[in-house]
Amino acid sequence: MKIAVRAAMIVALLATLIAHPLPAGASKDAPGTSKHTIAMGDWNRPYLLHVPPQPESGAPPPLIVALHGGLNDSEYVRRQSGLDEVADRHGYAVAYPDGLLGTWNAGACCWFARWTGVDDVAFLDKLIDTLVRQGVADPRRVFVTGFSNGGGMAYRYACERSDRIAGIAVVSGALAIGCTPRRPVPVLAFHGTWDPSVPYTGGGNMDADVHFPFIPVQVVMEFWRWVDKLPALSWPLPDGPDDCVGTGPGPVVVALCTRQRGGHEWPDYASELMARFFADRPSLPKT
């Protein structure tokens, strides 16, 4: 597709989003899932918000920001992950934002968001700030998860905003950007050895016009282990199946769950395990 035609298509679709934003939805502190928008310049960016039943203490709950895969949307990852039910059991709020035309600018990927240079890091900053200000989220207990392109965006946010999040969980995602986190980041990853989209052993191209190979999953995990100054991934992960190994006990843990012959998918145990993984991580220091 020629650049001029591509740009015209994107402008037309953005105009549609601007002219027809989603409704504000229900109150943000009411239990359940509702639709909302956040203004980013002239663009009202939509997201779903799930609020658990309020605890007796009335304190804001921890927040999971869940990022959909490429060419999907917030409703898709909400159903794919089953995080609403998990959040209610464990007391998390969950925000499901939408990327530009189903994509996130994770660095070397993906498509529309990368082509237009959308600042998705700034969008997530504003989303988290908004929910904290409204009393929906505990600022010291913010976590990010994502599938595929959304997983790459979770990695990017951890690389650039490590001082704002208490941990990430990536499902079938790729690190697609240079990474220099300011502080150690707890990382839990899920990946299938037969993933055709983000190859477990690396290779292929990160995007249609980015001829740079995916980094092998185990190399990515070795990077996080190294940057977090942790030992080898050789300990069984508490509560995890046999294919999950981590760096051992401690406040900061890097762990990988490898699904033998698994594809490009969200494992049925992933959401419950990540909720427990997040619960075991310490809160961020007070600022």
UniProtKB/TrEMBL annotation:
PANTHER family given for it? BLL1128 PROTEIN (PTHR43037:SF1), UNNAMED PRODUCT-RELATED (PTHR43037)
What range does the record give for the signal peptide?
1-26
Molecular function terms in GO for this entry? hydrolase activity
Write down any Gene Ontology CC term: extracellular region
What's the domain of life for this entry?
Bacteria
Under the heading InterPro entries, the entry gives: AB_hydrolase_fold, Esterase_phb, Plant_Biomass_Hydrol_Est
Q: Which UniProt keywords apply?
A: Hydrolase, Signal
Record flagged with keyword Transferase: no
Name listed for the protein in its UniProt record: Polyhydroxybutyrate depolymerase
